[in-house]
Structures are given as structure tokens and as C-alpha cells.
Amino acid sequence: MKLADLQKIAEQEVDFQRAYKYRINVCCSSGCMPLGALKVLEAFEKAVKEFGVEKECKVARTGCPGTCSVGPVVVVEPGDYLYQNVTPEKAREIVRDHIVLGLPAKDLLYSNEQFFKKQKRLVLRNAGKIDPYRIQDYIAMGGYSALVKCLATMTPQGVIYEVMTSGLRGRGGAGFPTGQKWSLVARAHGSPKYIVANLDEGDPGVFANRTLAEADPHAILEGMAIAAFAVGAEKGYIYIRAEYPLAIQTLQRAITQARSMSLLGNNILETSFKFDVELRLGAGAFVAGEETAILASVEGRRAMPRPRPPYPANSGLWGKPTLIQNVETLANIPLIIMNGGLWFSKIGTPKCTGTKCFSLTGKVNTPGLIEVPMGITLREVIFDIGGGVQKDRKFKAVLVGGPSGGCIPETHIDQPIDYESLKNLGAIMGSGGIVVLDDQSCMVDTAKFFTEFCVDESCGKCTPCRVGLTKIKGIYDAITQGNGRMEDITVLEKTSVYIRDASLCGLGQTAPNPVLTTLRYFKDEYIQHIKDKKCPAGRCFKTKEGEQ
Amino acid sequence: MSALTVKLKIDNIEVEVPEGTTILKAARDNGIEIPTLCSLEGLTNYGGCRLCLVEVKGAPKLFPACTTPVSAGMEVITNSEQLREYRKMTIQLLLSERTHVCSVCVANDHCELQSLANKLGVDHSIFERNWTRKEIDSSHDFLVIDRNRCILCTRCIRVCDEIEGVHTLDLKQRGRKAEVIMDLDEDWVNSCSCTSCRKCAKVCPVGAIYIEGEPITRTKNKDVAEFILTRRQRK
Amino acid sequence: MSAQEKTRVATIWLSGCSGCHMSFLDQDELILDLAKKIQVVYGPLVDTKAFPENVDVTLIEGAVANEEQQSLLKEARAKTKILISLGDCAVTGNVPALRNAWEDSAKLVLERGYIENADVNKQIPTEVPGLLEKVRPLHEVVKVDYFIPGCPPSASVINYVLTELLAGRTPNMEGRSKYG
């Protein structure tokens, strides 16, 4: 395969797609599947035949457009008409009204226009638009042209320079400058070098990486190949959790397709560049997403983090230089190569460029997977994209950053979202989980819930995380059962700060965030629990019978 | 061995050590004591107990002295108010994690956890103790493991794997549920890989693994791993 | 020094073996110096029935295992300026707290003691103070000012802490507080 061949495939595919006047994209990702997406897909195919429009209307299975709460969802192009809660019966209606009569079935359309208006979809550029099982679909959207550009016209240093210029920072949560990481690995001594793509998305309520892998697997592979070219790696692993069967299947297919078109393997695009990718399945540990734990797990050992230094850039997989990147970071790379680092650096804020995917959940009207430019405010995310709090209840707090994120109250939600301002608020970017809480949520109970999660997920290697979190959980149990003492607040605070400072890895260092932020912003609720034995939200002090 | 040396300051004392030396070794070689539990000369460093955390000037986080190599111009502080407070916290947590009752423990007066508590002035624990009923395995002829006293330092696992080379011991479960097991969680007597070499009992810092009928003073031998390694190198 | 000017010291024996009190008495000749400065106003060594008012220092041995002990401890706290946990049982729970590993241990130990292991007249007594669900160290029940761990704590450490306190200084336990 050569550049010309790739262009030919793209042109053919575009022509093929243009032949259709309409395209019906049926979301068949993990969100819509259990709701009967495949039956809907079948119904569309049947209806198109039934009405005799199969020549002008293409029915495609695609990934997720993001509105996971109203699945199965279907997008009709042109015009991006998004239909919600589609059933096989409704599918027939949509074909009849929209395709045959040209009148979109208004009462079935998704209602929150703001949901898409305020988003900027770069990473998820193809999500819900292309068939993830067909590499041609990806190529038609310009896929793999960035890899071609690198191999044909750029040097590894040039690629790293572009990534540095872009200002892209790691999307796994810590926000380390990507270009800097690449240049560290490129300069590191040792061979072979490895790339590990992190798709171990273990946070409850977070599904951005899964969606990306299910909707646009080739974007990840292309990003990896470019990274491999830049740092001089020949082998890459995608570390994906075994609980994502559809994403695994999709990625596996994508890898096979890419190999067959010599976009992976030896002599990629007839150059001397070789790079291959293998999947590694994680067996259900949250901590395995930590970068040194991932390395241990890929090597086949127990997923336990180790202290750094040595950093993986110098000594990673089997002691060799290793680049570890979140898949969302990697999916940005083809765009940066195609459009230039400068173009990317103008998106978002100067210190925090680009976009970020967030899994917006909790008590909002229109939850789902969103991608927004850095610098957008939490208020816009919650009240515009999310459509406000469900049932017009009062907004209380938003938990940003997954189980080890921070609870941010209304007074602070006008801050722009970026790594630094979230950190100042006591939260983290983390894996991009946003959970909105209304006045029925008890902040003490919320902090307890997330602490329990981290207690269960602690690997047990270091004392602060293993024992410290367990003790914090014990104090929460006492407080929420009416046995709290005022001294407990001090102990909680002291222990949390200690766990944050003394823990070995990111899990322990961030696990106390829910405790610290609820103590910072909602201390009065703790005092109410301890002194008056009252839970304003009515969640705590429940006896076995459920009576308060 | 590298002839290159690195100059750094530890607690304001100028020291010079070979490149690649850990902060812990650099400090100890120069008479500066840093408390440790999981670290043991001769075994790979683990970095788990967090007792040896030190401050490095200019760095926002704390570093475990046992795994962090020195670098030129580094300024290390090993004994600040905050570090002492954190070490006390670590000891309190370890003491309150499982059932540590010194007065009825086989390792009483020969226990590293106990002596560290003493040295660091941990006279009580702000944390409620957790009284556990984990399994005691005394099926082996003379080796006994009382998991209620285990602090999960994994010295036994590492000595079994790295020095004896059999890897009978390992961990099962994770977090607070983690336990040291033999083979695939067999009773010790049924372990087909255990060579009964006793090294696990020798390196156990507490009374979790001990030898039945042998005085603890004879069992405990922290230097066993380093001793064997040195002998191996000499041959 | 008259009795009024002496520091009023009380000692209490909760769930413990009395070893800490033995250690207290084991201060040898040093106890003579101490005796010049303190007056023991309550404890198993003296014959006062009720816990007195205005106690300066109370040394308490043993963990809190039953209701009577709990109320005595609270009373002592209310009437004492400086309260000291003496020995491992008071500081950690120690051996008496080993029963905490069982759910409803209070019931289990009574059954074990009075029914399973009894030869005659098997019954659980009802006219004694009820056992608490969990045996606790003192500081989980009341505020404790100083801790002297040890099983028993050595006489010299007891003497050190008291001497420091009598001199108006804060004892430094680093290197002195040995559990077990």
C-alpha cells in the first residue's frame, strides 16, 4: 500500500457514499446495544427495502453520538437529525416520514439543541458518523493520511515538534505535556522501545475511552503509529479492560484490517517503518490504569504500581523506554499532524489546549458523553449541555474527576475547566467524569461512597492508601450511623492530607479528594451529622429496616 | 561498579556517593538514620511502607528514600516536623490495621514495628484498632504464619522469590484484604514448592512468620539476604 | 509539705491484670521522693469508696469493657485535671480487647465463661455490670492527656512521666513508649 492507494480508497469510498441521498447511522455501541440497537438496525434495513429506498438510503452501524441516556439513538444525515428512544416500530415510521416523504418525524427528535451546540468534537470527530468495523469509512474521513504525511514528509523530530507546539497534554488525568514525554522517550537509551495505550477506564460512571474505541478505533491506532514513528518504537500494546467486550472486538477487528492494508506491521506504507499493536486485557482492577501498574500487568505480573523514578520513559516495559498515553491523547494526534500544532494550540485556553471528553452523568436532564473545548465553565456543561438539573431540583454540587475527584459547590462552577483551576478547587481532571448532585444528595454520604470505592480498589502496597483509607471509611461509618465525634473532622482532615502526600501512586494521592473537598465546601453538613445526628438529604442514619 | 560519584546534601551535610546510590544508602553510609520497614538490604526495593519518605528541596512531592536514586546537587531533608508526623501516622496505621498485641506476640521485644513505634514516640493511635481473625497456618512442620500480625511488607515474598528462588509465597486479594499465601493458596504443609529454608521467618520484621519452638532471637536475621548474596558473588 | 499542698493523684484499675499497678509500686526508692509530692486519694491501694472531687492526676490501668467501668471513667474524667492511660490495655485495648474480633463478643464470652466452661450451676450472671459490645481503649471513650504504653510500662517510665508533670513539663515519649 502506498499513499496513492490510500487516496484511491478514500475517493472510492466517498463516491460510494455520495451515491446515497440519505444515511441512517444507528448507534450500536455499549450504551444502545442492551436497549435493542441491533433490532433497530435490522428494522431500518427491512424498512428501507420495504419502501424501496435502499438505493438512496444507506443504513450504517456506527458508534455513539453521545446521547446515551435516550438510546437507542439514530442519526439521519444530511442534517444530523438525531432520533431518540428508537424502537423497531419507530424505525419504520422514520423511514416512511423522513426518507420517503422528506419530513423529519419531529416528535421523535432529540430535544436539547444545546447538547451539541456547545461541544467541540475533535477526538470524537467520527463517533456516530462512521462504521467502526470498516476501515474504508475511516479512510474516507481522511483517516491514516496523517500517518502518511509523517512517513512521507516528516522526521520524527518534526513530529515531536508539532506535538510540542500543539500544547497537547496527557488526557489520562495528570496533564503532563505530551510532546515533552515523547521527546523523553525518543532520547532515552535502550531498544526496543514500546508504546502502551491506556484504555483501562476503571472509574465508575466514565465511558469516554470506551466510546472512542467502539466508535473510532482507527484513530487510536493511527495515533499510536505516529507516536511510534516519533519515538522510535516498534511494538505497541493497548491495555484495555476485559469488561469492554465490544471495544475489544472493535479494536481487534481494526488491528486486523490495518495489518491487512499494511498500515500496521512491517514496511508500513512501503517504508522501512515497522510497528505492530497487540491488545492486552486487564482483569478488573481500577489501579491497573496507573501507569506503572499497567506496565506490570502488560508484563503479566500483578497490577501493582511501583515508585518513580525510574520513569517509564527510561525504564518501562521489561526495563525498556516506554511511552504510555491515554487513548484520548493518541486520538488527537492525527488531527495535530494534519492541521499543525499551531492550529491545535488555538483551541481551548493558552495553557490548556484542545478539548476534553467528559462523561456527564448524575442528576442532569441530558446526560451523555460530551467533548468540550478546555476553558468552558462547569456551569455551561451542566446547565446548557446537560440541560440543567433533573425535575427542576436545586443544584448542590458537581463531582469532577471520577471517584477521586472533588465535589465543587455552585459558588465555584463559573471557573473555566482546565487542569490548574480544577486542582485549585480540590478536584482533578482525572478520567473526565462529571457527576451532578442535587439537593437530595448528602455530601457526607457521597464522600463515604467514593471512599469505599477507593478502599476496595486500593492495591494494598502502600500503608497510607491501604490502611489510611480503610480508617477514613470507618470514621464515615461512625458518622453516618450516629456515632460521630467532633474530633473525627480533624482526624479526617489530617489523615486525608497524609494519604494525599504519602501514598505511592495516583490512586492514593487523589483518593482523599472527595473527603477534602466536602470538608472544605460542606463542613456544616458534617457538623449537622455529628452534633444533631441529622442528615439534611435524608440518606444517613438508616436502620436495617430503612427507617431514619 | 561506576567510578562516577555524585555530590549532594542530606540534612545539610555534604556527602559524596557513587552514581545510582539510593538516598537511603547514601544517608546510612554517612551515619544518617532513616526509619524503614519494607526495605531490606539484598532484596529489591519495594517502596510500600512509606516510612522512609524524605523531602527533596524544590520537589513538590515526597520521595521514598529506599527507591529514589541520588542526583547531583540534590538537597534532601530526612527529618522535618512533617516527616516525623507522617512517620508516626504510618506506624499508627500499621498498628491499627490488624491484631497487634505485643504482650502476647512471639516477636515481643524483637519486633521492628514495635521498636519503631518506640523510637518515633507513637504512644497511642488516633485510629480505632481493627481486630482481625485471619487464618493462622501452622500446618508446616515448624514454620507458622499468623496473618493477623502481617503488615504486608512483602519481605518474605521477595526473599522467597529472589534469594531462595522458589516463589512459594505471594499475595492474594488486594488492599486491606491482601494476604500472604503459599503456592495457589494451599496450606503450608501442602506447598510443593516450599523448601522449608526459613528465610521468610528470618526476614519477617514482625511476628507474622516464625519458627515453632525456636527462640525468636535465633530466628530473626535481617542480614540473611545480603549475606547470601555477598557469598554468591564471592564464589 | 502538708497534705493540702500535695498533688492529688488517683489510680483506677479497669480491665487489666493489675500489672501496671505493680509496676507503679515497683519504682523502688524513687517512690519515696514521689510520695513526698503526691497524695494518693483514690485507687485499689487506698480505701476510698467514691471517686473524689478535684483530682490533679489520674492514672488508669486497663481497657473499658463494661458499663460500670465506662461510667467510672467518665466520672474520673470530669473530676480530674490530667488523665493518663497507663499500660497497653488502657492505651490499645490489648488482651481484653481480643474479643472484639468476634461479632456480639459480649454474649460469646459470657457463654464461654459461665456456661461452656462451667461444671455446675451453668448460668450467665445478671446482677453484675453488663459487658460492652466492644472493649475500648480509654481515649475512645474520654479525652486522655498522656499515654504510657507498656505491658507493663516500666517503673522508670511511670516515674519519668509523673516527675515531668509534677515539674510542670511535658513528657517526651520518643524512645520511651514501648508497647508490650
List descriptors:
heterotrimer, A: 548 residues, alpha/beta, Glutaredoxin, Rossmann fold, Ubiquitin-like (UB roll), 4 domains, 5-stranded mixed beta sheet, 22 helices, 13 strands, 43% helix, C: 180 residues, 6 helices, globular
Give the number of domains of chain A. 4
Q: Can you count the helices of chain A?
A: 22
N/C terminus separation of chain B: 18 Å
Count of β-strands of chain B:
10
Strand order, biggest sheet of chain B? Answer: 2-1-5-3-4
Low-pLDDT stretches of chain B? none
Mean pLDDT level of chain A: 94
Label the overall shape of chain A: globular
Radius of gyration of chain A: 24 Å
- According to DSSP, the number of beta strands of chain A is 13
User: For the record, what is the CATH homologous superfamily label of the largest domain in chain A?
Assistant: NADH-ubiquinone oxidoreductase 51kDa subunit
- CATH C-level of the largest domain in chain B: Alpha Beta
CATH architecture of the largest domain in chain A: 3-Layer(aba) Sandwich
Poorly predicted regions of chain A = none
3D shape of chain B: globular
Question: How large a portion of the residues of chain A is in β-strands, by DSSP E?
Answer: 5-15%
CATH architecture of the largest domain in chain B: 2-Layer Sandwich
User: What share of residues of chain B is helical?
Assistant: 25-40%
Structure write-up:
- The complex is a heterotrimer of chains A (548), B (235) and C (180).
- Chain A has 548 residues and is an alpha/beta fold.
- Chain A is built from 22 helices and 13 strands.
- Chain B is α+β, with helices and mostly antiparallel strands and 235 residues long.
- In chain B, 26% of the residues lie in helices and 17% in strands.
- Chain B is built from seven helices and ten strands.
- In chain B, a hairpin with a 6-residue loop joins strand 8 and strand 9.
- In chain B, helix 2 packs antiparallel against helix 3.
- The mean pLDDT of chain B is 95.
- Chain C has a domain of 123 residues: NADH:ubiquinone oxidoreductase-like, 20kDa subunit (Rossmann fold), CATH 3.40.50.700.
- Chain C is 32% helix and 21% strand.
- The chains are: A alpha/beta (548), B alpha+beta (235), C alpha/beta (180).
- Chains in contact: A-B, B-C.
